[in-house]
Amino acid sequence: MAKKKEDYDVVIIGAGSAGLTAGIYCGRARLNTLVIEQGLVGGLITSTQGLENYPGFPEGVGGEELMNLFYKQAKRFGCKFKLTGVKEVELTGMDKIVHTFRNEYHAKSVIIATGVKPKPIGCDGEAELIGKGISFCSTCDANNCIGKDVYVVGGGDSAVEEAMYLTKFANKVTLIHRRDQLRAAKSIQERAFECKCLDFIWDSVVKSIGGTDCVTSMVIENVKTKEQRTILPGEGTKDFIVFPYVGLTPKTQIFQGQVEMDQGFIKANEKMETSCPGVYVAGDVRTKTLRQVVTAASDGAIAAVEAENYILTR
């Protein structure tokens, strides 16, 4: 069956904070704009309960709440949304083509805002237990932690914030970090160290996770002494939950060979221009030093304005 063809001025791939901001700016410029999102509108930040560093919310704001506001604003300015996966793209010609499973979307310009996905620990037994006691989304699986011990692996902002959030549900939460100090922002660290329900295991990495239908054991190793020890379920429980927050992997596989990359992240200049004319990138998926909602929104605004200029002058 032939695919249905639709024409747009701009197609934005990804509906996180960068993609939604780009949509707002493209919509305000009266560009015929389509936003395509395979997963959840709002992206990874929707799983964050307390976002305290986004300007304008002195008491903090939930990630899902903030992204809903972005989404409503983009809709208000006429952006169309398709909730589907992108199968392949053709970006090198003047006519950019984005293929989904049923349709093909033609555009004068494309903005890539596909974001990142959580990186697995990479230890033995992990792959078999994802969704069976290993989770990358604390908001999604917090209720499964009630009455159980929980282990969060990592030491950055996300790991520490999610560990604190999980103390509301779990019997006990322990954060495992490969270093002897956290990498999270100082304000987050201060709150974490004041949290009586949060414990820490320093200088340690996870070597293996065991179990069949649930997590029943975990071997950790001290990176300095090389001493290993086995963690078992707490008294009166038969399993425990593990949340890896050890890094991020860019979602750029479908763009390989069409735009220049650096370790999977898409390279761009200050105008968000990629190596392919008419193709822009915004948010966590591009090479940058700071990955935050506020910088993603900035990227999205710049990419949209530059896409508009490109369309007007091409």
UniProtKB/TrEMBL annotation:
Keywords: Flavoprotein, Oxidoreductase. GO terms for molecular function: oxidoreductase activity. Pfam families: Pyr_redox_2. The keyword Oxidoreductase applies. Residues 8-300 form the FAD/NAD(P)-binding domain. This is FAD-dependent pyridine nucleotide-disulphide oxidoreductase. It comes from Dethiosulfovibrio peptidovorans DSM 11002.
